[in-house]
Amino acid sequence: MRSVNGFADGYLKWLTDNIHEEPVENGWMEIATPFLDRFGDGIAVYAKELPDHVILLTDDCALTNNTIALGGPMESKKLQSLRDYLAPYGIQVTDDGELQMKTTKGNYPIKFNLFIQAIVAANDMFAPRSSRDSVSKIFVDEIVSFFDKSEVAYTQNVKIEGQSGIIHQVGFLLPKHKKFPERFIYALNKPTKQNIELTLFNWSDIQRKRGTKSRMFTFLNDENGKIADNLVQALESYEALPIPWSKRDDYLEELAV
Q: Whole-model pTM above 0.90?
């Protein structure tokens, strides 16, 4: 197994070296990040200090307008699904599709990171499952149904602090069992190098903080065909078990308690 410490440190340095801030109009700050949306465009966040030392973070509707392309009335099922998905991150979605989060100066780094995690995750989760599906069919909901049907015990949307001090959102946490340690479960609807690296950083940073033997599983949506070998190997090299969605039943023993 490769050193998770080396991976986490290197990834964190890459992240901090590639975030750039620039003032724009009316007291707003544009924060350009190295992350890309599913069309390959850079993800930017906008921040503004409000009265009483409150900081407002927003994506300026980029996620809904440019990536999810909700269309139709904003009270649609798609918008409600987005609200439900982002609520555990502490993000509100306005009627016109703008993502917003409020924080204080002291909590700004933690909240900013959660905001970015949420945008990257939503870019992945709200992409069409396959060429036959609309974005209203969300991969994580399919996993919940699978767990419930298979009587897998889980806690959903768990926030855990890593060694770096960053708070990470974990999709599912399965409790420790006499045969298995605790298991972190992630879901990637459209597996890419970017979201696999972010997932590995989240897990390795958590591992360094907790100092306990845990396992990590990642459900990979393979409805559009086989997942690229290099992406599967990246997970395996850090002992993060990749589970193709089409073969999920084969792993019930590792998931059940």
A: no
